Structures are given as C-alpha cells and as structure tokens.
Automatic annotation (TrEMBL):
It is found in: Cytoplasm. The lineage of its organism: Bacteria, Bacillati, Actinomycetota, Actinomycetes, Mycobacteriales. This is Uroporphyrinogen decarboxylase. It holds the Pfam family URO-D. The record marks D78 as: Transition state stabilizer. It is an enzyme of class 4 (lyase). Catalyzes the decarboxylation of four acetate groups of uroporphyrinogen-III to yield coproporphyrinogen-III. Belongs to the uroporphyrinogen decarboxylase family. NCBIfam families: hemE. Its EC number is 4.1.1.37. Residues 24-33, 141-157 form the Uroporphyrinogen decarboxylase (URO-D) domain. It catalyses: uroporphyrinogen III + 4 H(+) = coproporphyrinogen III + 4 CO2. Its main location: cytoplasm. It comes from Corynebacterium guangdongense. Gene3D superfamilies: 3.20.20.210.
Amino acid sequence: MTRRQLEGAPILDAAAGKKPTRTPVWFMRQAGRSLPEYKKAREGIPMLDSCFMPELLAEITLQPVRRHDVDAAILFSDIVVPLKAAGVGVEIVPGRGPVMDQAITTRADVDNLPILDHHVTEVAEGIRIILDELTGKQALIGFVGAPFTLASYLIEGGPSKNHEKTKAMMHAEPETWHALMRRLVPTITAFLKTQVEAGIDAMQLFDSWAGFLTEKDYREFVLPYSVEILKEVDGVIPRIHFGVGTGELLAAMGEAGSEVVGVDWRVPLDVAAERIHALNGPKVLQGNLDPAMLFAGPGVIRSEVARIKAEAARAIEAGHATGHIFNLGHGVMPNTDADAITEAVRIIHEED
Ligand code: 1CP
C-alpha cells in the first residue's frame, strides 16, 4: 500500500517537531467503556473476539473520534491480541484484564511459546475501514505492548499488583528471561508490521508496567528489546513510547529510540523534558493530565490544562523538547462521564 500523506494533521506535525494548527489531543483508552455506544456495539461479544472482527473493531475505533473531535483514533485492539493470534491461550476477563490459560514458569514453557508468523488479516481489514472514514487531519495510531509488559501477563498468569514472579525470573533465571524476551520480539514485530502495512499513521509502544523496575534492571532486562521493536519502523511512521510511573526511567526510555515520549501525570512536563533531553537531546512530549481530573468539573480541567500547556511551552522554550501532544497521564477510567471527555477536548483546543 502507499501510506496516506497527511498534510497539516496536527498530531503528525507535532510529532515531527513542526508547529501544529491546534494543540493535538487524543486520550489513551478513549475507545471503550466510557462510551454508551461502545457497550451497545460490544453487547454479548467477548473482548478478544471483537478485536478480530474488522467492521466492529473499526466502528469502536471511530466512535470516540466522532464524539469528541480528538485529533487521532487509537486502534481498538489489545496488547495480548498478537499472542492470541499466535495461538496462545488467553482471554480478557471482564473487570480484570488478560488472563492466561497457563502461566509461563520454566525454560520449556518459554521454548514452547508460539510465535506469530503471519499477518493478522482481520486487523488489517479493520484498519482499511477506519482509514476510509478518517479525514486527512485525523491520524490513526496503531500500537503494540512492549515485551516487558507482555511478559508480566505471561509469567504472572494475569494482571499483577507487584509483578513479583516476573522480577523473580529476571533475577533468578536471567537466561530464561532473555529467552522469553527474544521469543516475544518477533511476535510483537509481526503484529506491528500488519498494522504498518495496512496504513497506520503513527504507533505507540505501551510498556505500561515498566515503572515497577529500577533503572538498572530496565536497562539490562528490557531496553534492548524495546529498541529492537522501535527500530523496525524507524523512519516509517512516528513512534511514541509510554509507561506508567516512569519518572525515574524517562531518560532510559527515551534511549529506546522513539520520537515522542509519553509522560504520566506524576512528573511535570518541563521536568520530564529536562530528564529526557539530558541523555537524548530534545524529543516531543506526550501527556499528561491526570485521568482523575475528568471527574473534577470544567473549572479544574481548564486550570490543569493551562498548567500542562505552560509546562510544555517552558520545555520547548528551554530547548528541552520540540513539541507537545496532549493526552492523559494514563488511560480514561471506565466510569468517566463521556461528556466530560468531550468538554476536556474542547478546552484543550481552546485559545490555540
Ligand atoms: O481506546 C483505547 O485505547 C482502546 C484500545 C486498547 C488499548 C490501547 C485496549 C482495549 N487495550 C489497550 C492496551 C492495553 N491493554 C494496555 C496498555 C495500555 C494501558 O496501560 O492502559 C494494557 C496494560 C492492556 C491489558 C489490559 N487489557 C487491561 C489491564 C489489566 C491490568 O493489568 O490492570 C485490561 C483491563 C484489558 C482489557 C481491555 N482492553 C481494551 C479494553 C476496552 C478493555 C476492557 C475490556 C472490556 O471492555 O470488556
């Protein structure tokens, strides 16, 4: 396919370090349970089944774009979709998250983990439907989970509070750990290639739980594999890299190679930019409104948005960053009022 050329799409301009026509904004988890139309569309369909239904995944991806006037769609999928497509036994349990049929505990489990070796045609077809409906100013962001965050679900067997089995394997059986990382990289890369070849305009690498690690462990056990994945699309589409609670890891995560670094709400953007800049030179920032602020009313949202924009502007002025894509510091919470999201987007687009 020939990739669409989006002239003046605010999010792509910002990602490229150019001045956008308005502050670009999208929200992590903008598709999903905060929207009544999502609940209706998904009724009776298991989460992971819906990720393999081209028309349905396209519809759910487009719902928040139609409703909120955000500058990008995020592909409706999940970080475990490539595992499922490879034949790994995994389901998404409502109210909980991804749960594995069998946790990975031994080297033999690692060696038997299936590798994705084909295009996920259902997702490629869904992407084509989405691109047909988006305007030339609205980007489609694809995504994959990073090897560390995926490994945590595989080793813990499901969502984890402390990631203790994952860290234990890293330290007690480093060879098994590295073998698992090496086995996950091709699966993640294959799923990313499916999306890129189908025409996504940008991508985000979610290493959601990387913030649980020390910088030393992150560098030794995680970073080289995230580097490999991001390298696959170097110069092809803009790359965003994000994790939660990664204040201490921002510089190291910047080294993974993305153009854009996502920042959670705990660190002001100008402080984050200083940390990233110190080891990487200036990059584009993404973030970082606390998702809880969407419950606090328009007055609070307006002042928080002004603070965040001012911090981004300070970072750019200081030469520590080259742009800013507005987002939350983590995903939209499921019980968020959909109208509060629309209002927040309106406020973010104000005064530009
Ligand atoms: O708008 C969107 O962003 C929707 C697309 C999307 C994305 C980007 C979904 C659908 N999942 C994800 C990525 C994802 N999945 C991440 C990285 C983003 C993040 O940090 O939030 C992670 C960690 C997962 C794993 C996962 N899947 C969880 C978290 C569990 C835990 O450990 O706390 C959950 C709850 C899911 C299920 C899921 N994925 C997506 C939706 C809409 C849901 C809810 C299921 C439902 O509606 O029944």
